[in-house]
Structure formats: structure tokens, C-alpha cells
């Protein structure tokens, strides 16, 4: 069965109706503290060890009955069939008429007979050989990645996360925003003869990236830079546009890799330059291990599935509108932004795959900051605010620094926050009252390394897919970004001409004000 074929919408399944009636009677009154008091084995029953990632789900507002109904919902929504369709390379991205095969980018050559596997591994080998060449070239000291969205967030997040594994011989810079402050700040720190510009754009049509790339090229030439072909490399499906720009070294990708799922492709070049070919292959192997888990584990022991089902329970029954990501590792400071694009661009949709309005809510807002910083900023709201926000903690058992006392403090704080959210302080009134019973999930990795990072990201990709599959969404298009792009194209010349005709009163007024000397 393909995702394209009509099926029962989630809210019309028997499991959904049973979940609703359970929520109305008991589910909404579920109390974590009582659940732990009544079940000494709750931690064991609600923990899952997936490849590289241990997850404690026990501090979530679920019991065995909810769990069973959610698993039934997954079956009634044909999750296994939808997963099989993706993994068989069916055209599940129906609005763009594309397959969805980012998982193939990390599948060992010997494990697949997919017709694209040969080209995938050829490109991977070429990209990694180029990365090694750059790493071995002492004349190149700086690498500037110019790209936005999926062509920025994944590589940037991973390069920061894996800083301990990166060569100190290269400085990596990331320029995404069309705001010239960003590019100028980077250009002021690099020299043309020792800089490699990586122009990452799957489409090679994204306005911000093209303007930044043109400005970088103009700067390069103005500084006396020689040989654009040697100092600019392209990562794109649109090799002819890259060639027209003057780029001769290009690494391709395929239309079946969504931008936000592309860090495993040639878009991962900055990661490979930072951590080397073998580190990059370790990252792919970690992701592949999670792919295998997702593809083969029964639903009840399948971590991405269990996380997505919790998302549905919270969003559609409890009515929680956001999810907070709190990685207790400063290397993961861009993880919340990365997951924001992954979930919100994938499942932030109000229509189903056939374009029909959804009858239920879809993706929550994803936000967050690393701990312990967040504790001194937004955690107030998590503990005592009027909304309940499920929180996701992530810690590494081992750190890679040698400063005594820090890691214990970090871990203790993560544990304490999760504990405080659940326990609360119900016996006091007024401003000292903590209601408690606030849900959280706790992830543990051994250490933040290429393999565990790969597994963590693949876990989140499959969770997003599963949520979309239950809601009936196409998680792989992003039509909601188009209107703003069209309107911006119309406004640019008006900033010169001052022509406000046909604009609404507010936009015309703002245009005028911004033009005033
Ligand atoms: O406009 C949204 C988007 O298409 C994202 O999905 C994508 O990651 C980003 O823009 C960048 O696209 P490209 O890699 O084609 O420049």
C-alpha cells in the first residue's frame, strides 16, 4: 500500500475513538506520581534501548491502556505499510511526485539492490575523497559553507556537535542569512587564497544562497582571488546552474533527498572536511543502525514509533501545542533549530496528502536551548507556567573534556529538572507552588560521537515520518514557504521605486517608512 492511496483518516479509526473516550474519562487525570507509586517496574517497562540511544519514556502521561491503543492506532493508520512504501522507494512524496530515500544514503552498498545505490556510493566516495584532499591541503585554512535551511542546519549542527573529532587545521564558517552582516563578518576573517567556498543548494535557485554566493565571488575577485574553479565547490542537483556560476567541481544529490534530510548526502561535505571520511562513515553507520531498528523492530519496541505516538497523544488528546528540546550538551546547541525545521517543515501542514483539510491538529511548535542555560531562562514557564510542555532531555554519559566536577553538575541538573517537572511541590501554595505531573522524556547516549549523532538524527527523522503517517500528511513537501518568496520578489523593486500601488495599507506604510532618509 502506498501513502498515495486513500485510507481511513486517523480520527475515524476505532483506536482514535477509544483513545478519545479513555482520555475523557481517565486519561486526562493521569498522575505520574501515582503511576510510579503503583508500579515499581514502570522505569523498566517504559524504557527502550535503541542503537546508540537509550530512552526513558516512563515520565510520560501514559499507561498500558493508552500505550496499547496508540499501537493499535499505528496499525489502523497502516504505519507498517507506509514505512514499507518509503523503504521500497515508492513515490510517497505525491505533491512533488518523488520517492523518499534519504535512508539509502547511509545503507551499505552490500545491503541494497536499490537502482540508485551505485550512484549514491560513487558520489559518496568522490565527496569523501575531495574532503580528504581539502583536509590534506595546508594552503586551505578556512571553509565557508553558503547555504540555508537544510543546506545549512544539518552540517552546521553536526560540525558543532563533533568539534572534538574535527581537525584543528580548518576553520569552518556557515553563512545562511541573506542579511549581509553575516557574510561580511565571515569575509572579514578569511583570505581569498586560503578559503574554500562551498555553495550548498539542492536547487541552486534559493535567493539567499545565490546572493551570498555572488557577493562572496565578487569579494574573492576584488581581493585579487584567482581561480574561482578551485576555490568554489557546488553541492546541488542543478549542476548546469552551478556551472553557469563558474563552479566546475560539483557533488550531486537526488530529487528524492529532501533538503532537511540531506546532511547524509554531498551536503554533508563540511562535516566530512571537519571529521574526515572515516568519521563521516561512522555517522552514516550510526544512522543506518537506527534505520534498521525502525524497519525491523516490532512497533512496541520501536523508539521512533513510540516517540511519534506520544506526540500524537499529547498534540491531539492533551492539546499540548509545543515540545521543548533541552540537550544537556553544549555541542548540541543547534539541535533544537535543526529539529525545528525537521518537524515543522515536514509536519506543519493543515491538509492531508490529497489536499483535504485535516480534521485534527498536526505538528507542535519545536523549540529549546541547551541545558543548563535554559534553566536560567525558560524553565520557569516549564515548571510554573499555564501550559504543559513535554520536555526532551538528552545527556551523554561521558564527556570529552577533562575539567573536574562539570559533567556531574551537568547530569545532576538534567536529572533534577526532569524530577522537578514530575514531582512538583504541591504542598505549598502561591508563588512557591509547583503543580508537577509535567511530562518529559530522557535520552542517554554513551558519548557524543559521529555514530551516536547519526543515530540520534535518524531517530528524529523516522519519528517525524511516523507522525506524518498517522496524521495522513505528506511530510516531504514544503509548499508553505512559497508565498513569502513570491511576495519578496515583488517587494524588492518597490524598495527602489517606492511604488506602493496595489499593496495593503500596512505593507505600503512600512515600505514608505523604510525608504525615508
Ligand atoms: O524554502 C525552503 C527550502 O526549500 C528548504 O526546504 C530547504 O532546506 C531550503 O529551502 C534550501 O533549499 P536549497 O538547498 O535548494 O537551497
Provide a concise account of the structure shown.
It is built from 19 helices and 11 strands.
Structural account:
This protein is of the alpha/beta class and 517 residues long. The chain has 19 helices and eleven strands. The protein folds into three domains: 2-90 and 297-477, Glucose-6-phosphate isomerase like protein, domain 1 (Rossmann fold); 102-275, Glucose-6-phosphate isomerase like protein, domain 1 (Rossmann fold, 3-Layer(aba) Sandwich); 480-515. Helix content is 46%, strand content 10%. The strands form two sheets. A six-stranded mixed sheet has the order 1-2-11-10-8-9, sandwiched between helices. A five-stranded parallel sheet has the order 4-3-5-6-7, sandwiched between helices. Helix 6 runs antiparallel to helix 12 and helix 12 (269-296) crosses helix 17 (450-471). The protein is globular. The termini are far apart. The protein binds 6-O-phosphono-beta-D-fructofuranose (F6P).
* Spans where pLDDT lies below 50 across 5 or more residues: 1-6
**Helix content range:** 40-55%
Kindly provide the name of the CATH class of the largest domain. Alpha Beta
- State the domain count: 3
Q: What is the residue-averaged pLDDT?
A: 96
Which quaternary structure do these chains form?
Answer: single chain
By DSSP (H or I, 4+ residues per run), the number of helices equals: 19
Tally the beta strands.
Answer: 11
Just name the CATH architecture of the largest domain: 3-Layer(aba) Sandwich
Largest sheet: 6 strands, mixed
Q: What small molecules does the structure contain?
A: 6-O-phosphono-beta-D-fructofuranose
CATH fold description of the largest domain: Rossmann fold
Distance between the termini: 61 Å
Main sheet strand line-up: 1-2-11-10-8-9
**Whole-number radius of gyration?**
24 Å
Amino acid at each position: 500500500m502506498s501513502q498515495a492511496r486513500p485510507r481511513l483518516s486517523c480520527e475515524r479509526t476505532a483506536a482514535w475513538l477509544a483513545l478519545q473516550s479513555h482520555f475523557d474519562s481517565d486519561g486526562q487525570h493521569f498522575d505520574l506520581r501515582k503511576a510510579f507509586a503503583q508500579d515499581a517496574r514502570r522505569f523498566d517497562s517504559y524504557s527502550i534501548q535503541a542503537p546508540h540511544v537509550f530512552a526513558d519514556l516512563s515520565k510520560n502521561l501514559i499507561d498500558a491502556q493508552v500505550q496499547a491503543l496508540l499501537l493499535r492506532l499505528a496499525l489502523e493508520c497502516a504505519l507498517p505499510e507506509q514505512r514499507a512504501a518509503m523503504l521500497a522507494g515508492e513515490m510517497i512524496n505525491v505533491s512533488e511526485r518523488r520517492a523518499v530515500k534519504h535512508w539509502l544514503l547511509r545503507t551499505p552498498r552490500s545491503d541494497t539492490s536499490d537502482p540508485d545505490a551505485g550512484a549514491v556510493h560513487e558520489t559518496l566516495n568522490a565527496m569523501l575523497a575531495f574532503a580528504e584532499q581539502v583536509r590534506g591541503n595546508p594552503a586551505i585554512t578556512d571553509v565557508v559553507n553558503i547555504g540555508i535551511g537544510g543546506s545549512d542546519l544539518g552540517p552546521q549542527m553536526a560540525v558543532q556537535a563533533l568539534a572534538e573529532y574535527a581537525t584543528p587545521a580548518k576553520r569552518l564558517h556557515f553563512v545562511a542569512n541573506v542579511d549581509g552582516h553575516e557574510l561580511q563578518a565571515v569575509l572579514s576573517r578569511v583570505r581569498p587564497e586560503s578559503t574554500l567556498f562551498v555553495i550548498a543548494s539542492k536547487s541552486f535557485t534559493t535567493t539567499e544562497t545565490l546572493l551570498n554566493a555572488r557577493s562572496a565571488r565578487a569579494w574573492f575577485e576584488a581581493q585579487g582571488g584567482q581561480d574561482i574553479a578551485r576555490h568554489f565547490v557546488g553541492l546541488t542537483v542543478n549542476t548546469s546552474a552551478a556551472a553557469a556560476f563558474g563552479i566546475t567541481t560539483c557533488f550531486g544529490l537526488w530529487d528524492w533527498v529532501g533538503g532537511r534530510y540531506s546532511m547524509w548526502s554531498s551536503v554533508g561535505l563540511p562535516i566530512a572536511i571537519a571529521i574526515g571520511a572515516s568519521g563521516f562513515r561512522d555517522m552514516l553507520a550510526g544512522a543506518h543502525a537506527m534505520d534498521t531498528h525502525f524497519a525491523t523492530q516490532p512497533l512496541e519496541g520501536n523508539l521512533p514509533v513510540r516517540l511519534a505516538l506520544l506526540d500524537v497523544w499529547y498534540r491531539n488528546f492533551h492539546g499540548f501545542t509545543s515540545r521543548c528540546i533541552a540537550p544537556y550538551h553544549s555541542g548540541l546547541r543547534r539541535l533544537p533549530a535543526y529539529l525545528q525545521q525537521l518537524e515543522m517543515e515536514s509536519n506543519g501542514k493543515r491538509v492531508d496528502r490529497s489536499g483535504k483539510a485535516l480534521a485534527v491538529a498536526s505538528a507542535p511548535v519545536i523549540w529549546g536551548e541547551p541545558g543548563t542555560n535554559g534553566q536560567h531562562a525558560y524553565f520557569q514557564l516549564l515548571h510554573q507556567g499555564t501550559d504543559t510542555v513535554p520536555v526532551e532531555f538528552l545527556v551523554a554519559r561521558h564527556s570529552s573534556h577533562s575539567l573536574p566536577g562539570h559533567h556531574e553538575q551537568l547530569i545532576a541538573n538534567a536529572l533534577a529538572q526532569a524530577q522537578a517537572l514530575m514531582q512538583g511541590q504541591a504542598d505549598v501554595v502561591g508563588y512557591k507552588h509547583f503543580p508537577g505531573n509535567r511530562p518529559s522524556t530522557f535520552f542517554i547516549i554513551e558519548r557524543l560521537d559521529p555514530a551516536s549523532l547519526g543515530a540520534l538524527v535518524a531517530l528524529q527523522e523516522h519519528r517525524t515520518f511516523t507522525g506524518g503517517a498517522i496524521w495522513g500528511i505528506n511530510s516531504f513537501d514544503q509548499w508553505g514557504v512559497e508565498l513569502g518568496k513570491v511576495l519578496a520578489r515583488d517587494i524588492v523593486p518597490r524598495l527602489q521605486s517606492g511604488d506602493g500601488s496595489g499593496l495593503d495599507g500596512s505593507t505600503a506604510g512600512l515600505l514608505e517608512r523604510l525608504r525615508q532618509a
